[in-house]
Amino acid sequence: MFATAIGAREFSLRDPMVFILYGVVLAFIVALSLYYMLSAFKRAKELGIESSKIKKVITTSATFSILPGLGIALGVVTLIGTLGIAFPAIRLSVVGSLQYETQMANGVAEGLYGSMSNMIAHGISAQDFATMAMIMTIAICSGGVEVLFFYRLYQPKIGKLMAKTTGGKKGGVNIGDLIFQVSFIGMVIGYLAMSIETLAKNVTFIDGYYNFIAVLVAMGCMYVCDVLINKANWKWLDSFSTPLSMLIAMFVVGIISFCANRYGWALSTDLSGSANEAAEAAKNAFAMIL
């Protein structure tokens, strides 16, 4: 009887059960955070640290957590159309990352329907949701499994490698920093290549250049942030530079999208159904802002 009831339950991204599960996960994370915060507060008292300093640390930490968290919120917004609210919120607030989640979601959508817009227009089914969630989950869990079982084996070797430097006139470059920079640059080039692909295809629709415009704006914002951090000594901006650049880039693209819809600029014609509704919602949102 129970199985029959479950089988007859209609799939919906807004099913209350999904939000209940998200609430359970969120409650666990909040409880865990409060436990460690109270434990740290108690230990600080035992060490004789003044209450004013403790409160200052708490206030500063809370303040510095707001803006980086906006990047997480942006990721949730970008995935709402295909995965609803609860699942992206769980992933991005607990175990996932913005770049990975959106890339995997787009990859699955392209594999199933050719593009994300086609999937939104078609309407996501229970099978589509399960496929996307499974692929995203299995891949992201590999890191945790690897650390759990193999971290002690390779950590000492990585520690020695990270302590080494390459040759150079000014003492060389730390190999660990170099590996990170090379990996990051490779990832940036990969995303930039996908954006430049639009130019190679000679796309005539303005919405075909949204990704490319976002990349250029984000790069410009990151450069300005880097100058302010290193030249103006705005060290506090270091933690906020990435989400701030993303916010500005998405806001610029949003304004362009609003203007394109309002003034009749050339747009691709593959939008229909839910995609049209999403575009209309974005248009109305920016109309309220402007």
Question: Any key phrases for this structure?
Answer:
disordered N terminus; 2 domains; mainly alpha; 290 residues; disordered C terminus; 79% helix
Structural overview:
The chain has helices spanning 2-8, 16-46, 51-83, 86-95, 98-113, 116-122, 126-163, 175-200, 210-230, 241-263, 274-289. The protein is mainly alpha-helical. It folds into 2 domains: 10-139, no CATH class; 203-290, no CATH class. Helix 3 crosses helix 4 and helix 5 packs across helix 6 (116-122). The longest helix is centred in the middle third of the chain and has 38 residues, at 126-163. It is globular and about 65 Å long. Mean pLDDT is 76; it is low at 1-6 and 270-290.
What is the secondary structure topology, with strand pairs?
Elements: H1 2-8, H2 16-46, H3 51-83, H4 86-95, H5 98-113, H6 116-122, H7 126-163, H8 175-200, H9 210-230, H10 241-263, H11 274-289
Helix pairs in contact: 2-4, 3-4, 3-5, 3-10, 5-6, 5-7, 8-9, 9-10, 10-11
The total tally of domains equals 2
Number of strands: 0
Give Rg in angstroms. Answer: 23 Å
Count of discrete alpha- or pi-helical segments spanning 4 or more residues: 11
- Helix/strand/pairing class, anyone? mainly alpha
- Poorly predicted residue ranges: 1-6, 270-290
Average of per-residue pLDDT values: 76
N- to C-terminal distance: 54 Å
Helical fraction: over 70%
Largest sheet at a glance? none
- Our estimate of the beta-strand percent is under 5%
